[in-house]
Specification:
seven-stranded mixed sheet; about 120 residues
Length: about 120
């Protein structure tokens, strides 16, 4: 089974930076897509899909950068020039292929989230 865990959240002042990390551990053998979402509605923040194509929410373009390392199933969200509106719970989502019970199968998992608070 694949487990997705985020880390790196915290409190930062307006204009500051923070880097979130995400690891998809367990039975993953291929990472196809890793993205970041925020809030109860899980609004898209940034995502890196196959071929390392990226997509960003308009509100974070130019401030946030998504990246990942396929070899160790890890991804990051570098956040700069943070604003109060960026305060939220950030969730990592990972999808790909896992090897479990002697078979390859697709996985699609969410982490539990990490709190980011931007204070003035």
């Amino acid at each position: 089974q694949v487990r997705v865990v985020e880390s790196g959240g915290g409190v930062v002042q307006t204009g500051g930076s923070l880097k979130l990390s995400c690891e998809a551990s367990g039975s993953a053998v291929k990472l196809s897509r890793m993205g970041w979402y925020r809030g109860t509605a899980r609004d898209l923040v940034a995502v890196m899909a196959d071929g390392e194509t990226t997509d960003y929410a308009h509100s974070v373009k130019g401030r946030f950068t998504v990246s990942r390392n396929n070899a160790n199933f890890t991804g990051w969200l570098q956040m700069t020039s943070l604003k109060a509106d960026d305060t939220d719970v950030y969730f990592c989502h990972a999808a790909g292929i896992e090897y479990r019970n002697s078979a390859y199968r697709a996985f699609d998992e969410w982490g539990y989230g990490t709190q980011v608070t931007v204070s003035s």
